[in-house]
Amino acid sequence: NKDLLTSERRSNLSMNASELESLNRIVTKISNTTDYNKTQFTNDEYNLLSDKLLQWPADKLFPILDIARALIKHPNAANYYCHYYQNGIKAIHVIVDIGIKKSRNFPPNQIMAMRFIQNMFHWKFFWPGLYECFSEILDAIQPIVEDRQNSNNSGKELQPLT
Questions:
Q1: Over the range 52-68, which residues count as b (16 or more CB within 10 Å of their CB) and which as e?
Q2: pTM confidence score
Q3: pLDDT at 152
Q4: Are 92 and 116 in contact (CB under 8 A)?
Q5: Which pLDDT score is estimated for 5?
Q6: What's the burial of 95, exposed, middle or buried (CB within 10 Å: 0-12/13-18/19+)?
């Protein structure tokens, strides 16, 4: 956040004090799994993530993708994304675009984006959206698999995402 604040062309992506508090509330809610069914997220918290934080440059994006990955397993957040993001289809498009395609030189971002998609399988109501986006997801990860196969690790099996 400090790096973004000092950057003239990226300062609009830095968080103010209120947004930092919102981010802390999000992290607290997803960390407290014993109260999962009782906690709710506000529209401002969802908007902070989708409208600002997921727009961060790829080299700063990893912790945001990690929060999104954990958030999608929260029952109320999952319901929100299912309802407002066309059965998760819009969320898949965003994560594939930002976390995989635009993070080409940042493998940790790509892995975290794939973990987000993996976590969507936890909820049956996302399955139709995942099925609909199946080709897009495979097309996005194909270069990653090919790069891995052509790297110095050739001959070794690909490591699982978990």
A1: bbbebebebbbebbbbb
A2: 0.84
A3: 62
A4: no
A5: 58
A6: buried
